[in-house]
């Protein structure tokens, strides 16, 4: 806020002159960046493809409906695989993420200078890489299949679960822990009685939340060969079998809605 | 506070009989249901893990490849595929920026339209439907459709990310508008302001800082996603990574991954810094 | 029973919390530690069971020098000192019974505490204590379902479950209403009398201290400025502990001290049931 003195009396402005200049400069920079980025992005674009996009879309839609319902017979097993990838991947992630979280939390880490940075690095590395990219790597290393999918989901989830869990651990009430220590309990007992009960609700919530996300992610892992319904999606898209693609989309959508319903029910029961 | 009456005399205290066993009350009180759930979980684990076919021969082969890949991280090769990597990164970054800007611009009217307290009912329903559609479709699935419509390349990626941004941002924006302090809006309206003025003074001022924060957050997400949708041909560094892995060029792949992680960290740090300044 | 020899604590921030504090408590004596906030009361009792490490000085529990103990020895010694906390410090998401049994953690192995299999004698004793503090019905409730007074009773029972020789009590009534505060203080006095326990009680309420403590130690800025009976807390002494203020109202109470207790007949016997 600024009041400027002029010959006609004071004028009120929301911002001082340097402030509004900086703001305008910021916006100008953004617009400039946008134009440059747009130019770079569309340099090789063949616009003819874009102009007939509405026709292409109408054509695509025409070929996608009606869905080929009979194809459903071949989707049950991939759907079951998809759910397994998400669930087993989440379980594996829990096993790996819980110790990492305790090593990363300031109040439980054995060494803030040595161990904590390593744990934080694991969490950041895992979070920066999308599950599909993990799957891409694992398929290259382990070969296609469920195992690559499960490990990909687990590797991505370690960072997610680890981060939220260590934040929950850092927020616990230290007096409850102190009280358990004062009874003469050993470190493992302090963990069991003083810390674990306090983080259980957060843990359950985080895990369910991640499982929900993992169901979504595992539906597309098959695109890179890591098992599940994505395999059928890829082969249907590659062979331009659009009515099958539609049915797969419907199946994926139904699975996702079902998983949301299940996790909401479990959450209500647990917390 | 209604315990049984107790005699404070320690001698008579000893005369009372107390239980010598105690179990913590179980989470699920119905015993049969509890065991059924345990059995169900066990059965699922056996069946589920049993369904995972592990090809041990392939795995031992993979072991050696995994080591080579880790070796790639120790000595990443930025040089031999640098032109491809550079082109991929530029595509990723440009489509991240343009998609975020366009997505944010579109999500503002959509978000306002999806706020129950200010939008008329047909507009509300239409905007909510758009949001639901955008949120329920995975980015990569949307990318498949856009590639089919406009062809391979970053434009498909741009459309995908912009579409995903709309669902993400418009929903949060609508919730913010629905949560705003009604008293402030009332106060502006009481001055005789029109609909647009109410929007400007009563709502914009309350929502803007969070909108900027969320846009920056979405910028992070869009970059991460831009590294993925290349797998289905929507441009970006994902395609480069895919090619490198197909050719078993693990040192180039490691270089790409390192760059992705570094850029994610930088954008996360910068957007965190800007968000802290704005809010 | 408990002996402190020139106990000093300087925090890493440089703040001197305790400066050369020495005193001794015989068995069975209930000592009130009074003083303004920041005088070092909390630090003092936490130095005794070494939740806070003293900077220098020595502490003896009977013949055992607490300040020289290693990790294992310290855990063993902590079993002999029951601690009662400000705002209860119960593990809120555990049942009342688990909170009580956590007083036995120093005695049982990790595995038996993990699967919650405590020895039958411990469980019997826990139920006896629960009965003593009037909460038998609440055994399976979660601690966060109890009222403030009930929680502090569980806190007392947890400390007693350790079969301690001394109680370290940190502001037991800080978040309780006046009536419940008196009930809790009376309960503390009674259990100390029943078991011949010594106790160090941090307390900021001078009136309560005067009424329920056998001996008062006044701390100011980490040093002892008063050590004597509750009757000796004259306005001059209070001014020395807390600083300048009109103390006549609270020292008047000392004259009427005995009659300030509730005159309901049999009130003392009812306490356990409240």
TrEMBL record, chain A:
Keywords: Cell membrane, Membrane, Transmembrane, Transmembrane helix, Transport. It is a multi-pass membrane protein. One of its GO terms (molecular function) is ABC-type phosphonate transporter activity. It is found in: Cell membrane. The chain crosses the membrane at residues 21-41, 83-105, 241-262. It holds the Pfam family BPD_transp_1. It comes from the Bacteria. InterPro entries: MetI-like, MetI-like_sf, PhnE/PtxC. SUPFAM superfamilies: MetI-like. GO terms for cellular component: plasma membrane. Its main location: membrane. Residues 79-263 form the ABC transmembrane type-1 domain. PANTHER family: ABC TRANSPORT SYSTEM PERMEASE PROTEIN P69 (PTHR30043:SF1), PHOSPHONATES TRANSPORT SYSTEM PERMEASE PROTEIN (PTHR30043). Belongs to the binding-protein-dependent transport system permease family. This is Phosphonate ABC transporter, permease protein PhnE. It comes from Thiocapsa imhoffii. The lineage of its organism: Bacteria, Pseudomonadati, Pseudomonadota, Gammaproteobacteria, Chromatiales.
From TrEMBL, chain C:
The keyword rRNA-binding does not apply. Its main location: membrane. One of its GO terms (molecular function) is ATP binding. GO terms for cellular component: plasma membrane. Keywords: ATP-binding, Cell membrane, Membrane, Nucleotide-binding, Translocase, Transport. Residues 2-246 form the ABC transporter domain. SUPFAM superfamilies: P-loop containing nucleoside triphosphate hydrolases. The keyword Glycosyltransferase does not apply. NCBIfam families: ABC_phnC (TIGR02315). This is Phosphonate ABC transporter ATP-binding protein. It comes from Thiocapsa imhoffii. The gene is phnC.
């Amino acid at each position: 806020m600024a009041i400027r003195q002029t010959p006609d009396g004071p004028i009120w402005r929301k911002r001082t002159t340097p402030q509004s200049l900086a703001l305008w400069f910021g916006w100008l920079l953004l617009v400039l960046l946008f134009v440059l980025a747009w130019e770079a992005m569309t340099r090789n674009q063949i616009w003819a493809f874009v102009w007939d996009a509405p026709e292409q879309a109408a054509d695509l839609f025409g070929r996608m409906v009606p869905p080929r319902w009979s194809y459903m017979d071949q989707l049950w097993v991939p759907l079951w695989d998809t759910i397994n990838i998400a669930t087993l991947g989440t379980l594996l992630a829990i096993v790996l993420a819980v110790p990492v979280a305790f090593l990363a939390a300031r109040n439980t880490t054995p060494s803030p200078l040595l161990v904590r940075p390593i744990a934080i690095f694991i969490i950041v590395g895992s979070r920066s890489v999308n599950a599909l990219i993990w799957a891409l790597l694992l398929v290259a290393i382990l070969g296609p299949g469920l195992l690559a999918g499960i490990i990909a989901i687990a590797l991505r989830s370690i960072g997610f679960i680890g981060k939220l869990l260590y934040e929950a651990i850092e927020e616990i009430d230290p007096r409850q822990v102190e009280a358990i220590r004062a009874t003469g309990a050993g470190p493992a007992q302090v963990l069991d009685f003083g810390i674990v009960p306090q983080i259980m609700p957060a843990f359950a919530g985080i895990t369910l939340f991640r499982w929900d996300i993992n169901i979504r992610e595992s539906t597309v892992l098959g695109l890179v060969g890591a098992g599940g319904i994505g395999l059928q999606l890829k082969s249907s898209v590659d062979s331009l079998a659009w009515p099958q693609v539609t049915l797969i989309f419907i199946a994926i959508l139904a699975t996702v809605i079902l998983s949301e319903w299940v996790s909401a029910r479990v959450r209500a029961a647990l917390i | 506070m209604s315990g049984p009456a107790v005699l404070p005399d320690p001698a008579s205290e000893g005369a009372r009989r107390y239980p010598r066993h105690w179990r913590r009350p179980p989470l699920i009180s119905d015993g049969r249901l509890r065991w059924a759930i345990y059995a169900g979980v066990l059965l699922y684990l056996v069946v589920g893990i049993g369904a995972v076919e592990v090809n041990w021969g392939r795995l031992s082969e993979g072991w050696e490849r995994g080591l080579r890949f880790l070796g790639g991280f120790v000595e990443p090769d930025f040089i031999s595929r640098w032109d491809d990597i550079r082109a991929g990164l530029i595509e990723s970054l440009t489509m991240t920026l343009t998609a975020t800007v366009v997505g944010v611009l579109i999500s503002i009217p959509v978000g306002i339209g999806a706020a129950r307290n200010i939008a008329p009912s047909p507009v509300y329903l239409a905007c909510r439907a758009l949001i639901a559609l955008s949120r329920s479709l995975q980015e990569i699935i949307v990318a498949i459709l856009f590639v089919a419509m406009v062809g391979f390349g970053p434009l498909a990626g741009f459309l995908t990310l912009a579409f995903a941004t709309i669902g993400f941002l418009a929903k949060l924006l609508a919730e913010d508008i629905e949560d705003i302090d009604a008293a402030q809006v009332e106060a502006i309206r009481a001055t005789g302001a029109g609909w647009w003025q109410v929007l400007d003074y009563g709502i914009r001022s309350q929502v803007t800082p969070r909108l900027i924060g969320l846009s920056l957050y979405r910028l992070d997400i869009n970059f991460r996603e831009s590294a993925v949708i290349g797998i289905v041909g929507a441009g970006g560094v994902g395609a480069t990574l895919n090619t490198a892995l197909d050719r078993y060029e693990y040192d180039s792949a490691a270089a790409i991954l390192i760059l992705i992680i570094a850029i994610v960290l930088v954008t996360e740090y910068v957007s965190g810094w800007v968000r802290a300044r704005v809010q | 029973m408990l002996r402190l020899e020139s106990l000093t604590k300087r925090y890493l921030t440089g703040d001197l919390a305790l400066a050369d504090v020495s005193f001794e408590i015989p068995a069975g004596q209930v000592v009130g530690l009074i003083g303004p906030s920041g005088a070092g009361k909390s630090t003092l009792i936490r130095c005794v069971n070494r939740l806070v490490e003293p900077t220098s000085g020595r502490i003896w529990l009977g013949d055992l020098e607490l300040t020289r103990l290693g990790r294992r020895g310290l855990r063993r010694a902590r079993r002999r000192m029951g601690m009662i906390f400000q705002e209860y410090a119960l593990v809120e998401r555990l049942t009342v019974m688990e909170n009580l049994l956590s007083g036995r953690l120093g005695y049982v192995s990790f595995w038996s505490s993990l699967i919650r299999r405590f020895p039958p004698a411990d469980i019997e004793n826990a139920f006896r204590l629960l009965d003593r503090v009037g909460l038998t019905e609440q055994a399976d409730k979660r601690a966060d379902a109890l009222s403030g007074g009930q929680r502090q009773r569980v806190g007392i029972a947890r400390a007693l479950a350790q079969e301690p020789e001394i109680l370290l009590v940190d502001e037991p009534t800080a978040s309780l209403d006046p009536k419940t505060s008196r009930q809790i203080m009376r309960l503390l006095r009674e259990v100390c009398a029943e078991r011949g326990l010594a106790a160090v009680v941090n307390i900021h309420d001078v009136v309560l201290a005067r009424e329920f403590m056998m001996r008062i130690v006044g701390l100011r800025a980490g040093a002892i400025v008063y050590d004597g009976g509750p009757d000796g807390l004259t306005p001059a002494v209070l001014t020395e502990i807390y600083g300048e203020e009109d103390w006549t109202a609270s020292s008047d109470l000392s004259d009427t001290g005995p009659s300030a207790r509730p005159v309901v007949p049999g009130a003392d016997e009812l306490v356990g049931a409240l």
